[in-house]
């Protein structure tokens, strides 16, 4: 006689557990990537990162290009060779020897001299030894200096002459001839100050505070 299969409560529990385990396994197999996929609603977007880097790259290129252009403009304005530097110096010197600039320099030295020789002066060189006027009319300039040398001296030696304003002594402003190293010069001394002038090679009129400085000025012209 066959024994009937009697279902028990314990057996029902085991079957229920097996069924649930199978269901969970099926779910896991079906998803295959539990814990690896991004949760719904995540803000991570690879396209946003790409756009950020592209935008940053464009900004960097623009800034770099701007500074490069400014550097190019700066370098372009600077002398890039000795020749260009020399050209700039020569241009500056030419501006210093315009008729207006020459007239101003002569007037600063002596307004009396300015009224007489400005139109015959082509260049003015101020040096540590004195001042040199390049002239293109020797005869006129020579005659003017012989006639007006005392008036020129009054301006050039004005500071020294001020010390005689309240004095009963009258300063001597008479020029005398002097020759040194084959150079003819004329000089006058007031107190502790001396003014010497000389014509060099009929092309230059030089003024200095001593005969030795006149010879040094001549040396700068002849060398």
The share of residues in helices is 55-70%
Span from first to last CA? 150 Å
Number of helices: 8
Strand content: 15-25%
Run of helices and strands: HHHHHEEHHEEEEH
How many strand units? 6
- In one word, what is the shape? rod-shaped
Radius of gyration: 50 Å
Query: Quick check: average pLDDT?
Result: 79
Oligomer: single chain
Spatial arrangement of strands, main beta sheet:
1-2-6-5-4-3
Unreliable residue runs: none
Detailed description of the structure:
It is a single chain. The chain is of the alpha+beta class and 223 residues long. The chain is 55% helix and 17% strand. The protein has 8 helices and 6 strands; from the N terminus they run H-H-H-H-H-E-E-H-H-E-E-E-E-H. Strands 1-2-6-5-4-3 form a 6-stranded antiparallel sheet, with helices on both faces.
Relevant terms:
alpha+beta, 223 residues, six-stranded antiparallel sheet, 55% helix, single chain
Topology, pairings included?
Blueprint: H1 9-31, H2 46-77, H3 82-96, H4 99-109, H5 111-117, E1 121-127, E2 130-135, H6 138-156, H7 158-161, E3 176-180, E4 183-190, E5 193-200, E6 204-208, H8 211-222
Antiparallel strand pairs: 1-2, 2-6, 3-4, 4-5, 5-6
